[in-house]
From TrEMBL:
It is a multi-pass membrane protein. Keywords: Hydrolase, Membrane, Protease, Transmembrane, Transmembrane helix. This is Rhomboid family intramembrane serine protease. It comes from Streptomyces synnematoformans. The keyword Protease applies. It holds the Pfam family Rhomboid. Its main location: membrane. It comes from the Bacteria.
């Protein structure tokens, strides 16, 4: 069970309906501690990697390496806070770079087995079977595959910009779930809509999922959403105007990432874990359903 300190704090302090600071009940505030979710006024706000923390959570620290328990400080979404809020982001970035080096070095021998393709196509190395032939792993392997320097550079720059704040706010497990399911969502929509012999690759679907999640998080924390919305709009314009871009992957990732993030950060604390698991399971089932339907169409 998650810690819920200060249950008596946070009652409306005035006609606006905003809660009062848990330490200064007469001061209205729209900001909450990213760990314990208690309302905090400007005097009590202590800047953190994402948002603000209350004095008690800062004094409590992020743990000493012992196994987490119910009283451990929590992220906004209920995850256990970590000493390094960039660890999963670094691992994902490293995996993408490692696959890129392998693809550049190995050429078709590495690229062909990882591409997202619906049905068999022919390359210089011979026939390449696709998802419809049972190679469902391509839906995920293609998310880590890049062939061009500009492609991987843009995606990894976006990952490094968006990843750490989301990882700090969601926690490691929820963040990696968000990333992988967003990537799978993009792959599934591409598989459903694109021509069977079209091929796709890249982390863009997962990155667009991070964009959607960032917008949800900023809205939840009452931050100015205009910067991320402008950046998202620019990327969507590029998605639909540049040739050679698999727009299906971008939109699929955006939809899944936004939905997951909403479920993660808006789930009530009393049933938070149950609801978050249900949201993640629902997203996965929707992806599987799309893939099964498309496979039946093609076979």
């Amino acid at each position: 069970m998650d810690q819920a300190p200060g249950d008596g704090a946070g009652k409306p302090a005035g006609e606006s309906g905003l809660p009062g600071c848990y330490r200064h009940p007469d001061r209205e505030t729209g900001v909450r501690c990213v760990r314990c979710d208690r309302p905090i006024c400007p005097e009590c706000m202590i800047s953190a990697a994402v948002g603000f923390q209350c004095p008690e959570c800062v004094r409590g620290g992020s743990g000493t390496g012992h196994a987490p328990d119910a009283s451990a400080p929590r992220t906004l979404a209920g995850g256990v806070t970590a000493a390094d809020p960039r660890l999963i982001t670094k691992i994902i970035l490293g995996l993408n770079l490692a696959v890129f080096v392998a693809a550049v070095s190995g050429g078709d021998r590495v690229v062909d087995p990882m591409l997202l393709v619906g049905r068999a196509v022919f390359s210089f190395g011979g026939p390449v079977e696709g998802v419809a032939e049972g190679q469902w792993y391509r839906l995920l392997s293609s998310v880590f595959l890049h062939e061009e320097v500009a492609h991987i550079a843009l995606n990894m720059l976006a990952l490094w910009f968006l990843g750490p704040p989301l990882e700090a706010a969601l926690g490691r497990v929820r963040f990696v779930t968000l990333y992988l399911l967003s990537g799978l969502g993009g792959s599934a929509l591409f598989y459903l809509i694109a021509a069977p012999n079209d091929a796709a690759l890249g982390a863009s679907g997962a990155i667009f999922g991070l964009f959607g999640a960032t917008a949800v998080l900023m809205r939840r924390m009452n931050y100015d959403m205009r910067p991320v919305l402008v950046l998202l709009a620019i990327n969507l314009v590029f998605t639909f105007t540049w040739s050679g871009i698999a727009w299906q992957g971008h939109i699929g990732g955006l939809v899944i990432g936004t939905a997951l993030a909403y479920g993660f950060v808006h789930a009530p604390r009393e049933k938070r874990l149950l609801i978050q698991r249900a949201v993640a399971a629902g997203a996965l089932l929707a992806i599987v359903a799309v893939v099964v339907i498309r496979t039946l169409q093609l076979t």
